[in-house]
Amino acid sequence: MATLKEVKVKIVSVKKTKQITSAMKMVATSRLRGAQMSMEAFMPYASKFAEVLGSISGNAANDASPLLVAKEEVKKVSVILCTSDRGLCGGFNVHLIKKAEQFIQSELQGKDVQLICFGKRGRDWAKKSPFEIEDEYLDVVGGKIDFSVASSSGQKMIDSFLEGAVDEVYLVYSEFISMAIQKPALKQILPIPSLEDVAGETQVDEDSSNLPEHICEPSSVTLLGEMLPKNVFIQIYDALLQTSTSEHGARMTAMENATKACEDMVDELQTTYNKARQAGITADLMDIVGGAEAIKG
Amino acid sequence: MAESLFLEVVTPQKAVVSEEAQIVVAPGSEGEFGVLKDHTTFLTSLKVGCLRYKDATGKERYVFINQGFAEVLPDKVTILAESAERRKNIDTDRCQQAKERAEKRLADESGDVDSVRAEAALMRAVQRITMSKA
C-alpha cells in the first residue's frame, strides 16, 4: 500500500489537473458562444441566398452552368477536410478523419485523391497518408472566420474544376447539432449536385415561391452563373463555421468529462488516504497497548 | 410623405441595415437603379459601389457594397453582399493601405500577380475612400 505522503502528493496533483480542465471548459464555453453567434449571424444571409437562388433556378435548365455538369470520367477528386487546429477535444478530429478515410476507401477506390486541409490535425494526418496535400489552411477553424477565406479557397477549387484539373470536390466537416452532439458529415460540392437540392431546403415554407417571376437583369442564366460559385463559397463557409462551433462543443464536453474524472479520482484517492491513515493509527495503538501490556506483565 | 419600403442589407458576417426606407438607390451591374414602393419584382447583381437610401425620417444614408445581389419586391429590398458597411464605419487608414498595396501589386510586372484580384481590391479601396470623403 502506498504511503500516506505518496497519496497526498497524488491528490494535490489531480486537483491541479482538475483546475486546468475546468478552466479549459470555461474557455471552450465562451468560445462556443461566440461561434454560435457567428453561425446565427450567417443564417439570414444563407437562407435569403438560397431563396433567391431557388427562385431563379426554378426554370433554368440543369446544364445552365458548367459547374452543374458532371464529368464523364472521374479521375481526380479533391476532398476538403475540416478539422481543428488544436487537440484536447475528445474524439472530434479522429471521427472526422475516419469519416474521410472511409469515404475515400469505399467510394474513391482507384481514383487520384488530393486533400485540402482546413486545420492542423487533419493536415498532420494527411502528411502521413498516401494522399497528396493540395492546399492547407491553418489558423482558420476555431477562431474568427472571415468569409474571404471561404471565397478565395472556393474560387481556387472552381478554377481547377473548370480547367479540368479536378473532376469532383467533396467536403468533410462536422455538423453542429447541439452542444453535446456533433456529427461528421459529407457533402458533394462540385459538380453542384442539382439545383433542386441547392434551393430545396428553404424554398418550401417561403411565401415568395408564389410570387410572380422576377425580372432579371442581366438574364437569369447570367445571374445563375454568378450565384452558383457564391453558393459554393457559402457552403464552405457554413462548413467552417459549423466545424469550428463543433470543435468548441466537443472540447467543452471533453473537458467536462475530464473534470468529472478528476473529481472521481480525488474521491477515490481520499478514501485510500483515509484508510491508510486509519490503518496507521490502529497499528500505533496496537503498539502502545502491546507495550503497556508488556510493562504490566 | 412617400410610402416606405423595407430595406435589408445582409452579409455573411451580420445584418448591416434593417430598416424602413423611402427610396433606395443601388449600384446594379447594368447601371445604378432606384427603387420606390411598389416596384415590380426584380433581381439583379450588384457591383462595388455605394448604396444610398433615405430612412424613415428623410435623412440620406450611405452604405458601401462589395458586390452581391439585390432582390426587389414591392415592399421590400434585400441586398446580399459579400461585405458591406455604413459610411461612418469605414476605416480610412485601412483603405489607404489597401489602396497602396493594390497599386504596388498592379505596378509589379513580374507576371505572378493576380491582376484581376488586385484590380478588384483597388476598386474597393478607391470606392471606400471616395465615400468616406464625401
Descriptive account of the structure:
The complex is a heterodimer of chains A (297) and B (134). Chain A is an alpha/beta fold and 297 residues long. Chain A has one domain (28-252): 3-Layer(aba) Sandwich (Pyruvate Kinase, Chain: A, domain 1), CATH 3.40.1380. Helix content of chain A is 61%, strand content 14%. Chain A has 6 helices and 6 strands. The two termini of chain A are 34 Å apart. In chain B, strands 1-2-5-6-7 form a 5-stranded mixed barrel. Chain B is elongated. The mean pLDDT of chain B is 87. Chain B is α+β, with helices and mostly antiparallel strands and 134 residues long. Chain B has 2 domains: 5-87, ATP Synthase, domain 1 (Sandwich), CATH 2.60.15.10; 91-133, ATP synthase delta/epsilon subunit, C-terminal domain (Single alpha-helices involved in coiled-coils or other helix-helix interfaces, Up-down Bundle).
User: How do the strands of the widest beta sheet of chain B line up side by side?
Assistant: 1-2-5-6-7
The outline of chain B comes out as: elongated
Radius of gyration of chain B: 16 Å
Counting copies of identical and different chains, the oligomeric state is: heterodimer
CATH architecture of chain A: 3-Layer(aba) Sandwich
Helix count of chain A equals 6
Find the CATH superfamily of chain A: ATP synthase, F1 complex, gamma subunit
Structural class category of chain B: alpha+beta
Mean pLDDT of chain B: 87
- What is the CATH class of the largest domain in chain B? Mainly Beta
Q: Note poorly predicted spans of chain A.
A: 201-210
Q: Do you know the CATH topology of the largest domain in chain B?
A: ATP Synthase, domain 1
Mean pLDDT of chain A: 87
SSE string of chain B, helix = H, strand = E? EEEEEEEHH
Short description:
Chain A has 297 residues and is an alpha/beta fold.
Q: What topology emerges from the helices and strands here?
A:
The complex is a heterodimer of chains A (297) and B (134).
Chain A: H1 4-57, E1 76-82, H2 92-107, E2 112-118, H3 120-128, E3 132-137, H4 147-163, E4 168-176, E5 182-190, H5 195-203, E6 215-217, H6 220-296
Helix pairs in contact in A: 1-5, 1-6, 4-6
Chain B: E1 5-10, E2 15-28, E3 31-35, E4 42-46, E5 49-55, E6 60-73, E7 76-86, H1 92-107, H2 115-133
Helix pairs in contact in B: 1-2
